[in-house]
Amino acid sequence: MWQALVRWFHRWTSPKIFYQISRPWIFWSSVAAIAILAVALTWGLVFAPVERLQGNSYRIIFIHVPSAFLSQAIYLAIAIMGLVGLVWRIKLAFYAAKQCIPIGASMALLALVTGAIWGKPTWGTWWVWDARLTSMLVLLFLYLGLWALHNAMERQETGDRAAAILALVGVVNLPIIKFSVVWWNTLHQPATLKLTQAPPMHISMLIPFLMAIVGFYLAALAWGLSRTRLEILQREPNARWVREELDQLGSAR
Amino acid sequence: MGVFESFSDFMAMDGHGIYVWLSYAVATAVIVFNIVSPRLLRNRLISEHKRRLRREQR
Amino acid sequence: MTLTAVIQGIMRRELQLAFRRRAELLNPLLFFLIVVSLFPIGVTPELARLSEMAVGVLWVTALLANLLSLDLLFRSDFDDGSLEQQLMANVPASLLVLVKVVTHWLVTGLPLTLMSPMLSLMLALPSEAIPLLMLTLALGTLTLSLLGGIGAALTVGLRKGGLLLTVLIMPLFVPVIIFGTGAVSAFIDQLPWLGHLALLAAMVTGSLVLAPLVTVLALEIAVED
């Protein structure tokens, strides 16, 4: 059993085999993501009832919360892949970690912007130094730092390992940052502002909400896999199979 | 239309339409970015590969 | 050689090197002085309003001054190859890094702390809060030197690492800023402030233990390259 698991893992960590077996995964996760998101967002926008306190503006939750969840999950995933890369010297983990950065950063940005837009009707102002918005802002900074570090390095391998260390330091720090920001926030702003202290959600809102979360995760999976495949092609241009693959991609266009 | 009386009601969302639609527009932009940017990377890789082939043939 | 002798040896070397570049030692202090005096010009000369923001301005400016000088922590040793030798010596590399960082703090963080009373008078910080401000600044700059050491090690191979270092490290530093300034503000508002100070001390201790280990890892990557 254990050996079978190890063998399965090793198959996935070889760039060539990963390239081959990830293709159907991308297809099916994209299809599922499109279908689920279409249902979830239509339901959320058109059929879910109006929220009692916030009116229709609560419909932003169907993108705000999934993107916030996803941005944190992706940061954790980057740190784990960095650790795997550092410890077991698995190149593929570094490739995937690098290509996850833009996805995670775009999700953090989306969470921030939708949070700010949601703040306007709820709090009456675009930006509030609310604990969640602030820690999301710091998370975005961490993503930008990772990307800047990758781009600054002349050798990509050095960038991989340096960014892995930075991601690990960041992931240890994230809970401390969150704790400190919540605490700072309660110190400076006696709880006048509360957003999404979600009163238990009605089932007709909860189902599209959960579906939206699943849909975002599936979409991110598809993006992450296809970006990692491209990173393989970019990083190993001398492998024979990569050249053949590029030949084929070029002639198909 | 769902919980709304009419299409214009749906667009207006009781005055919150601007916020809701702005959020969904940003979400669309982010999704488009995530779809388009790998495409661009792919095209770049292919053209680099072709340039390299041409160089090697010479 | 005993451990203390080793530590003394490293420290003496670092201090000698630092004092040979006296002008560079002054730069963080000048930065601190000038940037702090820009705030009244940019915001308001009213002392009442200045005193409200004094703690934050002093803290953030001191940290920036400290951080901008960190860029050079490993640079010259890396460039002339002595860092590689030092990492291979039979002294624990994390000890070496720790001593280097603490020495850096002695020549930047500590002077910044000693200079802060004068600047806090210029910003009309209540004078009874000055001892606590100095204590938090001393702990805060030490933590920053430790965490910044990680950033300096990550960017040591780059020709222009200074700004990148700031971008990498400042987000990680949010908790320290919050608890450091929180302690002083709470003291001024006559609220309980020991809790903030305890958390700040916990972060100093934690980074004293962990940061050198990570810094060594990062240096090894840079040296291997």
Largest interface, counted by CB within 8 Å of the partner chain's CB:
A-B, 41 and 32 residues
Report the structural category of chain B: mainly alpha
**Helical coverage of chain B, percent range:** over 70%
- Structure summary, number of beta strands of chain A: 0
Describe the largest sheet of chain A: none
Query: Which architecture of chain A does the CATH hierarchy give at level 2?
Result: Up-down Bundle
CATH class of chain A, named: Mainly Alpha
**Sheet of most strands of chain B:** none
Task: Please give the alpha-carbon distance between the first and last residues of chain B.
Answer: 65 Å
Any overview of this molecule?
- The complex is a heterotrimer of chains A (253), B (58) and C (225).
- By secondary structure, chain A is mainly α.
- In chain A, 82% of the residues lie in helices and 0% in strands.
- Chain A contains eight helices and no strands.
- The radius of gyration of chain A is 21 Å and the shape is globular.
- By secondary structure, chain B is mostly helical.
- The model of chain C has no long low-confidence stretch (mean pLDDT 88).
- Chains in contact: A-B, A-C.
Topology, please?
The complex is a heterotrimer of chains A (253), B (58) and C (225).
Chain A: H1 2-13, H2 15-47, H3 61-88, H4 91-123, H5 131-152, H6 156-188, H7 203-235, H8 240-252
Helix pairs in contact in A: 2-7, 3-4, 3-6, 3-7, 4-5, 4-6, 4-7, 5-6
Chain B: H1 7-12, H2 17-57
Chain C: H1 3-20, H2 22-42, H3 47-70, H4 75-79, H5 82-88, H6 93-107, H7 109-122, H8 130-154, H9 162-169, H10 174-188, H11 194-224
